[in-house]
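Two records follow; treat each independently.
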Amino acid sequence: MCSSFRLLKKAIWVLVTLENSSATVIISGFVTYPGKVTFDRPTTVYQAIMQSGGVSDYGSLSNIHLTRIINGVQRTETINLRPNIRGQPTLPKYVQDGDVIYISRSLF
């Protein structure tokens, strides 16, 4: 019993916490199934749109707006997914909880 006690006394405890990776995102505009979608793992904007059925026949792959709150300020950036569709290497853009993805209408 004494040797067990000494072993436990010398143990080092390590606490690992995992960041909550779930994200609820609103996908709207010219997408097949618009609405609120929740993801339980890291998901790219491209994957999120595909989860919603993809861009509709009238939607634009090159004019997608990602809106998110950063430090209390709403910011919007335009994303072009055409390179992804063509198989060109691109840096992934991951969705975050509270993001809004809007697919604009195609001009053609």
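The next record belongs to a different protein.
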Amino acid sequence: MTATDKIEPSLPSASPALPGIVALIPLLAIAALIVGCFYFVKKYREANAPIPRLVFVWVAPQFALLVLATVSCFLQAAGTSPVVFVVVCLITLVCGILTLYVHLPHAPKAEPEDSSANNTKNSSSKQSSAKALPINLRALGIDVLVIIVAAALAFMAIDLPWSEWLFPTNPLSIAIQAAVLIGAMVIMLSLCQGHGGGMAALVLVCAIIGMVQYFTAQFRGQALLPGDILAAPTAAAVSTGYRYVFTNNCMIALACASLAFFICSFARPVLRGGKSWMRVLSRLAVSALIVALGVQGYTSVNLRLDYDIVMDYWNNSRLLLSYCEQGFIPTFLSGMQSMPIEKPEGYSAEDAERLEAEAASAYDEIASQDQNRMAAEEQFESIQPNVVVVMNESFADLSTFENLWAGYEGPTYFKYGFTGTAQRGNLTVSVNGGGTCNSEFEFLTGNSCAFIGYGKHPYATYDLEGVPNMAQDFSDIGYATTAIHPNLASNWNRETVYEQFGFDQFIDITGFEGAETLHSGVTDAATYEKVVEVLEQSDQPQFIFDVTMQNHSGYDQNNISADKLTTYHSDALDDEGNRQMNEYLSCIQASDEDLQYLVSMLSELDEPTVLVFFGDHQPFLTDWFNHNIYGGDTDEIMHQQRMFHTTYAMWANYDIAGNEQNDTQVNMSLNYLGATVKQIIGAPLTERDKANLTYFSKVPALNPFGYQTPDGAWYDLEGGPEAGIIDDMAKVQYLRFATYVQ
């Protein structure tokens, strides 16, 4: 079986952007809708009737969609065919005009929306129950039809933007998604006391989710995950670095939303007889009943085990395929059920403590005879070096993708000029194209996302108070601790997490006023100058954790000057792929030069200082490269892991006792790097550190997709020759992490 035997989905493609002149079409539609509004007002004045202003609320979404269409043309963001664009604008215009027409004073049996409640109230006192019954039945029939049609349109609004399939291929998933939407429509109708505003809001939410799913897949190469909801503020903060283009499917989804808004305007209160408070209570009771049934159903079944509705995390394409086959709502709900960290089979706290103690004891036995470690420990007692850690945004060596055939040989200084390192190598990580906080988490805590689950972001999901971490470890031995990130402190909840981790200070974007920028933010060099500034402010040994920003996606911003833009070309990529590749490589070239600048500054520093430099993840572009260039891979795990490694190096401006500093190559996963740094410089190790270093000798690399043995072979987490060690690691991590946060 090859890595691509399974059907691979593709996002709906964008057509060439429509020229700005096409904006005349939605502008004319807006003008026609405005004329319709004036005509509507005129008719009510002629009839000497009060103008139902709520009708204009129903027309407002149509105005908004036409304005969006206009703006998208001016911004070259309408990547649709002219026919689709015109049809969508016409549908939106017709929906707006019809909304006005059915509420005209002469329209048969039509009632102004804002007076329907008063009419109901006045008539309820005059009509007998017998006369109210046919009215209620007629209104009930209309509402049932409105609910079904609105749910169907919401179904398409949430799935169409990112899927080329009109409906999921799994019939059960269709039924689940339809049931959820119909139930939600009934709840919104009941909560709004029979009016359609709540249903319209639900349709809008579905359309927004569909668009977010599409743009997330386009920019990050990933589908939406439950953990992304908690990270929404971070996503919003970095969303300005992307170019948004609406495809045919996006525009059709907006047309579905426009139709749904029009349909929802027909909803009317059903119960017209009886006391008003009884009507209110009955509708609230209906809402409560549906919510109770929904919660009961959701919590009593396991969508993954009982109905085989799963998120296939194997790679980004398969994850998107899961959504295509199963629909957004069932797949997302299945992912939510997997959010809690599962307790390992056979786990007990006593057993986990025993396993950790045994692993730590095994390390101590070896270390007691390790002359290099003993020399480093002795040196550390008299020389406590500054420890500067740079987690560089999206820093990776794309020369490992040999089949790009682009002539790229990797970051020049990092690979060929950054010599005399204490240790360096390939670094296995757990994320691709995003999820920076997970790399931070693995480095600072020594925990692996392999035992937490793909798609979860511990920074945003859990309360990390009390979780053991490197900042606290160094603080406990007298170090001052500083975190640096030249962006909003709220991103990935860092302001809270860093405080919980015990950092003495956090320098965010407010500390970089007037700093030079490149591509997506403050330059690496500016953060390095801040690092040196912190080092020079105190005689106390420092632990500094610097998370850079400039290389952040997207790579279609076209904001790299010609003198800094690389010109590599790969025949394996189309023109757009080559443009984005060069924009990314230009950023890496700048990072490479800034790293050399940092090393030169630290070399001149009088204080002994250790530098740990690593990339947090590859850019999302590599998902494209891997699928398109290496689609014939026969080893699925290797095909997957190609996207989940970066590189690291550890360097010092002084001679580390017990280390020859001769660029020793050691490959590992990120969860081991922190303990490795402390081991090399002779810093005290916790029992968790020692256990990790013991596990490293058996399983040098792991992530949510598998683990590697010392011979370089990769295996599934559930099997292979070291499955027992993986089980031990899972139990120890559950003890040292999961029990703290859940």
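Discussion point: The mean pLDDT is 90. How would you locate this feature using only the token line?
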